[in-house]
Write a structure and sequence with these properties.
Layout: H1 3-28, H2 44-77, H3 80-90, H4 95-128, H5 136-167, H6 172-199, E1 202-204, H7 208-220, E2 227-231, E3 242-245, E4 252-256, H8 257-262, H9 265-280, H10 283-305, H11 309-314, H12 322-362, H13 366-379, H14 388-394, H15 400-414
Parallel strand pairs: 2-4
Antiparallel strand pairs: 1-2, 3-4
Helix pairs in contact: 1-2, 1-12, 2-4, 3-4, 4-5, 4-12, 5-6, 6-10, 7-9, 9-12, 9-13, 10-12, 12-13, 12-15, 13-15
Bound molecules: zinc ion (ZN).
Length: 416
């Protein structure tokens, strides 16, 4: 057997086994005892529900992971990639268009095979725990809009990457890197204006006194906000959230309508302060730079794998092409990208603690953020007891109890 194929199968099965072990550990670390910090937020039955929700999503993830690993292995071993490639080549277009069709078919196949899972997750699991507000119509429209975006943005980007690799020789990776980075930056500006309004309605908040409080706080911290918006998150889910969009003087803060409903104004300010903390502490800039470095490394390593005939053999290909090498590289690179994501998650968790501290210090009251976090996690039925290995691998935010305990210690320190 081809050694690349062995390596890829090993990676697929190893990551399946790892996720399985983590899921079982996660199930075992669920704890029926209500943590004292949440005694005033949860009653026992609501807390039990959060543990049931965690258990249902973990088991579902376990099943989905097994299914997707199995289907990927079968598809690879049956030479599925080659079949799609031969079909795309027979349409008789040039290299770039053929590559776009080839990738489009593979992405569609992967989407279709995972569709039953997203239907089940939205209309059965989220529904059972009272989160789901997505109608069948919204669900279908979302798929149509997302496909349209994938075609109109992803298509040209992929064409550009293929073109750089085909025409720029050994510097192809460098041009790809610069191209993708510029594309991502432009997207950051376009997303709030062109993309997000396709999925949600944004309207300026109407609560004048909340608006005044927000602007007063932002002013005090010397922070420019272009607008304060609410978004109809309730169109899809009853879960709460808030985020900033845009850069510099284009920054807008967006609160889910569900968050404005559940939190009082001082808790909303605390959540805003946390989000502002990410800007003030330069987390956003650092993450973008980290992303840039990571993309550069990825494109460089990718360039070493283009036209690799042993790799193409592993997938049973009759023809070698740059576009199929991109797909194969995805398999080879997945252990590296897992490692990078672990590092990025660790940095991001540290940033969360720092932004929490920033919010506590600038609002001079850690209690408000604690209350806000408690309400957020209760409303979202967040798992209060995730297993540390699961957190290490996947969490971009520290578990909420750890954030609360850190904030409580902060309060303790500041009174001394
Ligand atoms: Zn944060």
């Amino acid at each position: 057997m081809n050694s690349w194929l062995l390596f890829i199968l090993f990676v697929l099965i190893f990551s399946f086994l790892l996720e399985t072990v983590v899921s079982f550990l996660n199930l075992r670390s669920l704890n029926p005892a209500l943590p004292p910090e949440f005694a005033d937020t949860y009653d026992q039955s609501k807390y039990d529900e959060s543990q049931n929700y965690a258990s249902a999503t973990i088991k579902f993830g376990l099943f989905e992971n097994g299914y997707s690993t199995a289907i990927t292995v079968v598809f690879l071993l049956c030479g599925g990639v080659n079949i799609v490639d031969i079909w795309a080549r027979n349409l008789g277009y040039g290299e770039i268009i053929t590559g776009l069709i080839f990738s489009g078919v593979l992405i569609s196949l992967s989407f279709i095979s995972s569709l039953p899972f997203s239907i089940y997750s939205t209309f059965f699991i989220e529904e059972r725990f009272g989160f789901n507000r997505t109608t069948v119509k919204t669900f279908i429209l979302d798929i149509i809009k997302a496909s349209f975006l994938a075609l109109s943005l992803g298509g040209p980007l992929l064409a550009l990457i293929l073109w750089f690799f085909m025409s720029s020789g050994s510097y192809g990776w460098l041009f790809c890197w610069i191209g993708v980075f510029i594309f991502t930056l432009i997207l950051q500006f376009l997303a709030p204006v062109l993309i997000m309004p396709l999925f949600n309605k944004f309207s300026p908040i109407e609560d004048e006194s909340l608006k005044r409080d927000i602007l007063q706080y932002a002013d005090k911290e010397n922070f420019k906000i272009q607008g304060i918006y609410t978004m109809d998150g309730s169109k899809r889910s009853s879960k709460l959230n808030a985020f900033f969009t845009g850069f510099g003087s284009f920054r807008k803060i967006v609160f889910f309508d569900t968050l404005l409903e559940k939190l009082d104004s001082s808790e909303i300010i605390a959540v805003l302060a946390h989000e502002m903390g990410h800007f003030k502490l330069r987390h956003i800039v650092k993450m973008i730079l980290g992303y840039a470095v990571q993309t550069g490394i990825m494109f460089y390593i990718l360039s070493l794998f283009l036209d690799n005939s042993a790799l193409s053999d592993a997938f049973g290909m009759q023809n070698i092409s740059i576009y199929s090498s991109l797909i194969f590289f995805g398999f080879i690179y997945s252990p590296v990208s897992m490692l990078i994501s672990i590092i990025f998650n660790a940095i991001s968790r540290k940033h969360e603690y720092d932004a929490d501290r920033y919010a506590a210090e600038t609002t001079a009251n850690p209690g408000m953020l604690i209350e806000g976090l408690k309400k957020l996690s209760a409303a979202n039925l967040s798992n209060l007891n995730p297993h540390p290995l699961h957190v290490f691998l996947h969490y971009s935010h520290p578990p909420v109890l750890m954030r609360i305990r850190k904030l409580q210690n902060l309060k303790f320190n500041s009174t001394h």
